[in-house]
Design goal:
By secondary structure, this protein is an alpha+beta fold. It is about 35% helix and about 25% strand. A hairpin with a 6-residue loop joins strand 5 and strand 6.
């Protein structure tokens, strides 16, 4: 009987552990805004990490006054981010809006002239979104807001915390219930006392 309890307890622990360590499935990216006026992409996967991307305009120092760019000192990450973002926009939004569209992903802080190195996603009407690398920009004509502000546009990447799937939660709860049941059964049996 003790052997059966030990096996059941081990299985319950294994179930709970496997549920906690199960891989978390990535969700498909979704467009924020409209296809004619995208304002971001949620759920973009770059290098195995999921990001929500927001398009915003302003100076480098204004946009990144609180938090540094996600890919600062990581030109390969910025380049991958630009390529994945362009692919997602082409898939989700179709053709770029009727005006010039350009969003920068900085990987080097501005120099004393205000120029910064970045990867970028750009496009104009009747074309596709394209990724580029090595832009040295301090100011650009940008039409990603209505009305246009003529300021530099940035793609701001924010890391998304992973959320386990419902099946993972069910396995974990089943494992903990098994552990609780085994503990309850042990307590409810009277122990033998030597007299």
């Amino acid at each position: 009987m003790n052997m059966i309890r030990a096996v059941a307890s081990t299985l319950a622990l294994a179930t709970a552990f496997s549920a906690l360590t199960a891989p978390i499935e990535a969700r498909a990216a979704t467009l924020v805004g409209t296809s004619s006026f995208p304002t971001g992409v949620d759920g973009l996967v770059v290098g195995g990490t999921t990001y929500n991307v927001t398009f915003t305009e302003g100076s480098y120092n204004t946009v990144f006054s609180v938090t540094a760019p996600t890919f600062l000192n990581n030109s390969a990450g910025a380049s991958d981010g630009a390529a994945d973002l362009a692919a997602a926009l082409n898939s989700l939004a179709g053709a770029p809006p009727s005006a010039e569209f350009s969003e920068f992903i900085p990987y080097a802080a501005p120099d004393n002239l205000g120029d910064f190195l970045s990867s970028f996603v750009s496009g104009t009407v009747s074309q596709t979104y394209a990724a580029g690398n090595g832009a040295n920009e301090s100011d650009t004509t940008n039409f990603t807001s209505l009305p246009p502000t003529f300021q530099t546009g940035f793609a701001v990447f924010t890391t998304v915390a992973a959320v386990p799937e419902p099946g993972t939660w069910a396995m974990m709860l089943l494992g903990f219930a098994g552990i609780g049941f085994m503990a309850y059964r042990r307590k409810s049996k009277p122990s033998l006392m030597a007299a």
